[in-house]
Amino acid sequence: MLKDNIISLRERIDRAASRAGRKPGEIRLVCVTKEAEIKRVEEAISFGCGDIGENRIREAIEKYNTIGTKAIWHLIGHLQRNKVRDALKVFSLIHSVDSEPLAREIDKEALKTGKVQDILVEVDISGEAGKYGIAPQEAAGFVEKLSSYPNIHIAGLMGIAPMVDVPEKARPYFASLKRIFDDLASRNIKNTEMKYLSMGMSQDFEVAIEEGSNMVRIGSAIFGR
Ligand SMILES: *Cc1c(COP(=O)(O)O)cnc(C)c1O
Question: Greatest CA separation found in the chain?
Answer without folding.
Answer: 47
